[in-house]
Amino acid sequence: MADVLRIDGIGIERVVMPLKAPFETSFGVERERAFWLVTVEGGGLTGYAESVAGDEPYYNEETNDTVRHMIRDHLGPRLLGQPIEHPDEVLPLFAQVRGNRMAKAALEMAVWDLYGRVRNAPISALLGGARDRVPVGVSIGIQATPADLVTQATRFFAAGYRRLKIKIRPGLDLEPLRAVRRALPDAPMMADANSAYSLEAVSVFQEMDALDLLMIEQPLAEDDLVDHAELQALIKTPVCLDESIRTQDDAQKAFRIGACRVINIKLGRVGGFSEARRIHDVARAQGYPVWCGGMLESGIGRAANLHITTLPGFTLPGDTSGSDRYWEEDLVDPPFVLEPDGTMAVPRGPGLGVVPDPRRLKRYGGVHEHFVK
Ligand code: OSB
Ligand code: MG
Hints:
Blueprint: E1 5-6, E2 9-25, E3 28-42, E4 45-50, H1 64-79, E5 83-84, H2 90-93, H3 101-119, H4 123-127, E6 133-135, E7 138-140, H5 146-159, E8 164-167, H6 174-183, E9 189-192, H7 202-208, E10 216-217, H8 225-234, E11 239-241, H9 248-257, E12 262-265, H10 267-270, H11 273-285, E13 290-292, H12 299-309, E14 343-345, H13 358-364, E15 365-371
Parallel strand pairs: 7-8, 8-9, 9-10, 10-11, 11-12, 12-13
Antiparallel strand pairs: 1-5, 2-3, 2-15, 3-4, 6-14
Helix pairs in contact: 1-3, 5-6, 9-11
Magnesium ion is lined by residues 192, 194, 217-218, 242, 264, 293.
């Protein structure tokens, strides 16, 4: 086994997969998932990753077009031909390039997969994770009526999901949350606003204190840690940050000023496994829980989410639901399945432990580009 890995090719393929049902958040409705499947080649093997950007810059500023541009013109050239002893070295190679963490994450995570395949070890073990199954929850999009929401929530809770996350937006918040709380008095539940409110709405969040929510995710603007700190001081329910936390440094500062008491870690948002582990370490050292968020990933990104969730600080169920919550047919075969006890198994094979199914990639894949030095 060579100690030094050299990346001698990078591929991106556009994949478009229809969602079983539209997914609505405060920033829009998603009917399908369009993303880049990214490959890196080295040592005669291939590593895979799923870029979590979509076609529209609604969750954050990145899109599939910006990810392609970054990989082709800025990040790819910095990675190709570089000797790599450990995937922790990848993000520093990109340090001169500001932001664009989803693009960086896609390459970084593909190198982790490749590294795991070369070392013949699952990414979870290489990260220091110990669990072989992790408890999971489900994120439920905005529904037309509170009754529809209750139907969905009841079905998912009965299936075994250990925590229900309800998407909210101004005007569709207290009433739907109260309806679910009435129907499921004991369900661990929370709300996610995706940055849709300002501090003027503080009374809405104060009323949520009566609903026994585990947390309220990203109520305010993504670039406003200060307002989140002010809000947290005025409510009892813990604030959880998603969009606002991009780096270990963001996490340090958020905890320092009291902007949140929980962090939703998304691999794509933070630039991949190495930064995700550092954010986890910061939170754990200070006694704050983290959990793994989701971006409606296919089985490739889903596997990555399960690997990072094996770290000990991921003490709350995340958003990594079973394949059947999103797809008639996943990109990987077999699909990811929710166990009746509300857990999902972490793949045991080398690297991610899954690869795209060739027939399904033919069905859902498309434009393909390949970059070499
Ligand atoms: O804010 O967590 C979010 C999906 C797309 C964009 C943002 C978010 C989400 C989800 C879904 O909540 C999580 C999932 O099931 O993958
Ligand atoms: Mg969120």
